[in-house]
Design brief:
Layout lengths: L4 E4 L4 H7 L6 E6 L4 H16 L5 E6 L4 H6 L7 E6 L2 E7 L4 H11 L3 H10 L4 H14 L4 H13 L3 H9 L8 H13 L7 H10 L4 H13 L3 H14 L3 H13 L6 H15 L1
Parallel strand pairs: 1-3, 2-3
Antiparallel strand pairs: 2-4, 4-5
Helix pairs in contact: 5-6, 6-7, 7-8, 7-9, 8-9, 10-11, 11-12, 12-13, 12-14
Amino acid sequence: MTDFSIDITEADFETAVLARSREVPVLVDFWAPWCGPCRTLKPLLEKLAGEYGGRFVLAKLNSDEAPSVSARYAVRSIPAVKLFVDGEMVDEFMGALPEGQVRAFLDGHLPDEAEKLRRAAGGLTDPCERAELLRRAVALSDGRQAIVFDLVQALIDAGLPEEALAALEAVEPRGRDEQWLKLKARLDLAQGVGATSEAELRARIAADAKDFEARFVLATVLAQQEAWPAAFEQLLEIVLRDRGEARSQARGRLVEWFPLCPDLKAVMNARRQLSMYLN
């Protein structure tokens, strides 16, 4: 192994971990030869230690041979992984986590230049300024997905939907998780309204309750204003009044928008009504 990944004993814990952690973060892997999950986690940690190139040192400690240290740091089950900085344990996780979660754990404590830019962007109120920092962070990180997602949100907020769509579409299919779907829904929402005014839309609906086109557009206007209960109401009216394609589209949009709404009560009420109208 490289100097980034070392085997230690109880006798050199003070030097190899506590003293060393005053120079560089030290990640201690408490393992044992009989532990099956340890055999899965250990090579992953060794690989990441090499990839992170010295931003932390991995110290592997056989917990069976280190009873005092294990008791001192309350190691009750293994694998147990504990991060030390400046001579103190600052965080930990238990079990053989998947690689993505281990990376997230490390990135939370070992920010590189891209992560520093991302955090700086999070403190800016101007979406254009935020987007500019995040563009640099994406380039530095070679397209790290979490930073790309932050950039997409900033671009949406800045009124740059075409650039946001390009960034979102660049994410590989295997990375298109729930967060990707939420951002795509927000982007669709941001692009979904033309020049028709809210007053005109309401007038059309008053004249014809089955003007579903007007209801769809009004729902989008209201959602952009984050008036979620009112937006849901327009879509639910379509579900109630139609038995064809408009109903199906309204149902799909409701399902798409529910995760975007921070008002859990409004979501629950809308879900209840949707279920009632569909049965």
